[in-house]
Design a protein that fits this description.
There is one protein chain. By secondary structure, the chain is of the alpha/beta class. The protein is 39% helix and 18% strand. It has 28 helices and 27 strands. α5 links the parallel β6 and β7. The longest helix has 15 residues. The chain is globular and about 90 Å long.
Length: 677
């Protein structure tokens, strides 16, 4: 059943814009609806009932949340959005010259002030903004107006208008939505990462402002007060000259004890001259904090001081708490077994055979394969066939956690190890999986410093909690998975060679769907039945489906089934297929080769190999044709293949184009063969 996400905003346009953003990030498995106060959507009883049925609600401001709460009560899953600018909008504003004063136009006084605060936090310190909104009594007499997508409310008196575009939903809000919907694994999809790359971080302006030699102390105090993270600023002599309230709370030292004193005396744990320190976990006054150090230069690029950004472990714990709960809830039980691996192709039968043979061993297993091939399904099947099947199966995605948190998740921590830590400490994932199985998904994303500690777990069967001194023995089966080529990652220095060989004792590679196309029809039937779908596909649609590459593998196929089911049609034709699937095939203009009248079996088999290569968009030469013919029980030498290709050319079934090395192409001009492969 599809997940349901609702958006509540003041403006109908803003709601529509947020919906467009989120629709691009979530696939068709999430239904998104929007409601606005402007359109009086919350006055309709049917909309209130619809809101109550949602899995999660995104609300643009806290004041709107208070109103919605009156309609729905307290028992609903809500995320209050935090917004930022796009990179293009930020650059537009940053590059404005000679502008000292401007109107900041938005829907309400509250939203205008919020936007001004955002701009100041992003380092836009050269413009004095005046909030302007539709219901204000007197509009200020200013020539220049800046707005975030609300040009309709810009006063007519404005002579120049800069529209920065609607503010974008920030990275942490997106993470909370994915986690709240139980889709945290999809955070690694390219479309999500590309979206994050297009955002401006809330702390982008910090370095810009601190590096300005003419920064006034009043401006610095304003900047520091806006920052959520702790910030401590030292001058060129290493003395602390400024800080914010967050820093006082995090390091547990009052401002009066810091200002004017040497940083090395007050905070000896922090080296303000080591600019390589980024997100390092250290202990200050018995509390764990993460620290990053940045250098400040004057106008002549000479050293003029440093600043440290500090963040307490508790805040990071709170930020990722929902993600942790989702992962832990998912990880304790292996609900899939080998019968859930659908397929009758030789490739998938080989995978099943390996699973059965390797399940009883306690040696590490490395499952490799493209995204969407079903690596966790294989891992759970291994566990359920093992001697540990009645014990814990604990799964963790190594790419889902902040690197500084991953260690405490894997190894656990002692009571009092950091602010907000449980009194009696907490077991880590390795302890939870003791005598059972631990599944380390996306192992290739594990930080290099943690790889050393994982190696010790494998070699010695020992762990030590964060903040602890006791060595704890563990006995567990390690299954890891990745869509990366770890051998190449080793060559790049991103993955330890010794760990790679320790993990890769029993390798299982899952073939992509394009290499097991005979399973596509069976998989479609399986997921249709699982989804209670009743549609049927005509011959044209079936032919396109079989010819598609399925780069997203099983995950893409499942999404396709859900898409077709939601069309609510009995018969699906080629034109009903998802755009990217039918468009790919239409571009190729596939024309099936009629080989029924060809009596020569060797010619028939070569044509068949060429056609299969065409569907898969592969380049094949004589050597590869010879190998594939052999797999089909036909013995053809490369010399034989050359002769058969000449015969087929004479029959006008293929054309030979004499180019570099010589190539063979079909009538539509699609390259099928390169002789020098």
């Amino acid at each position: 059943m599809n997940k349901k996400l609702g958006i509540v905003t003041l403006s109908e346009d803003v709601g529509r814009y947020y919906k467009e953003q989120l629709t691009k990030l979530f696939d068709s498995s999430v239904e998104i609806s929007s409601y606005s106060f402007e359109s009086e959507d919350l006055e309709a009883v049917e909309n209130i009932d619809a809101l109550k049925s949602l899995d999660i609600i995104l609300i643009s401001t806290y004041s709107q949340y208070e109103i919605v709460k009156n309609y729905l009560g307290r028992d609903f899953n809500v995320v209050i959005s935090k917004l930022t600018l796009s990179r293009s909008g930020y650059e537009t504003l940053k590059n404005l010259e000679g502008v000292n004063n401007a109107m900041l136009v938005n829907l309400s006084l509250e939203m205008a002030i919020e936007t001004i605060g955002l701009l100041y936090s992003l380092g836009i310190d050269n413009i004095r903004f005046t909030p302007v909104f539709p219901t204000m009594d007197k509009v200020p007499d200013m020539d220049l107006a800046i707005t975030t997508g609300e040009t309709r409310y810009v006063p007519e008196s404005a002579k120049k208008v800069y529209d920065l575009g609607h503010r974008l939903i920030d990275e942490m809000t997106i993470v909370e939505l994915f986690v709240g919907l139980g889709l945290e694994e999809d955070l690694n999809r390219k479309v999500v990462k590309d979206y994050f790359d297009g955002l401006i971080s809330h702390n982008t302006g910090v370095e810009h402002l601190l590096n300005k030699s003419n920064l006034l102390s009043s401006q610095l105090d304003t900047l520091l007060s806006l920052m959520e993270k702790g910030l401590i600023y030292t001058d060129g002599n290493g003395k602390i000259v400024s800080f914010n309230g967050s820093a006082e709370e995090i390091v547990k030292i009052s401002g009066s004890e810091m200002v004017g004193k040497r940083a090395s005396d007050v905070l000896p744990q922090i080296d303000f001259y080591d600019y390589k320190i980024k997100n390092r976990l250290i202990k200050i006054n018995e509390e764990y904090v993460t620290v990053s150090i940045y250098r400040i230069n004057d106008n002549k690029e000479k050293f003029d001081g440093s600043y440290a950004i500090v963040e307490d472990f508790e805040s990071k714990e709170n930020v990722q708490n929902k993600l942790r709960l989702q992962l832990m809830k998912k990880g304790h039980v292996a609900k899939y077994n080998i019968d859930d691996i659908v397929g009758e192709s030789d490739a998938i039968k080989k995978v099943k055979s390996l699973i059965k043979r390797m399940a009883k061993s306690n040696s590490p297993v490395l499952v490799t394969g493209e995204s969407g091939t079903g690596k966790e399904l294989v891992a759970q099947s291994l566990h359920n066939l093992s001697n540990n099947k009645n014990r814990h199966f604990v799964a963790v995605n190594c790419a889902a956690f902040n690197p500084s948190l991953l260690e405490s998740e894997l190894f656990g921590y002692e009571g009092g190890a950091f602010t907000g830590a449980m009194k009696d400490g907490k077991k880590g994932i390795f302890e939870m999986a003791n005598n059972g199985t631990i599944f380390l998904d996306e192992i290739g994303e594990m930080p290099i410093e943690l790889q050393v500690k994982l190696l010790r777990v494998i070699q010695e069967g020992e762990i030590m909690r964060v903040g602890g001194s006791e060595v704890i023995k563990v006995n567990l089966r390690i299954i890891s998975a990745t869509n990366l080529d770890l051998a190449k990652e080793v060559e790049k220095g991103k993955f330890r060679k010794d760990l790679y060989y320790r993990l890769n004792v029993l390798p299982i590679n899952i073939p992509p769907l394009r290499e097991r196309k005979s399973d596509i029809e069976l998989l479609f039937s399986y997921f249709k039945k699982k989804n209670n779908s009743s549609f049927k596909m005509n011959e044209g649609a079936q032919r396109v489906i079989k010819g598609h590459r399925w780069d997203g593998n099983i995950r893409e196929l499942v999404s396709c089934v859900l898409y077709l089911d939601n069309l609510d049609k009995r018969e699906i034709g080629k034109d009903d297929l998802p755009y990217h699937i039918k468009n790919e095939i239409e571009e190729g203009k596939i024309e099936e080769i009629e080989v029924g009248h060809i009596k020569d079996k060797k010619q028939r088999i070569v044509l068949q190999i060429l056609y299969e290569a065409f569907l898969n968009k592969e380049k094949v030469g004589r050597k590869r044709i010879s190998k594939r013919a052999y797999s089909k029980k036909y013995h053809l030498t490369e010399y034989d293949v050359k002769g058969i290709l000449k015969e087929l050319s004479d029959l006008k079934l293929v054309d030979i184009s004499i180019g570099r090395g010589g190539t063979i192409i079909n009538k539509k001009g699609i390259k099928l063969i390169e002789e020098n492969e």
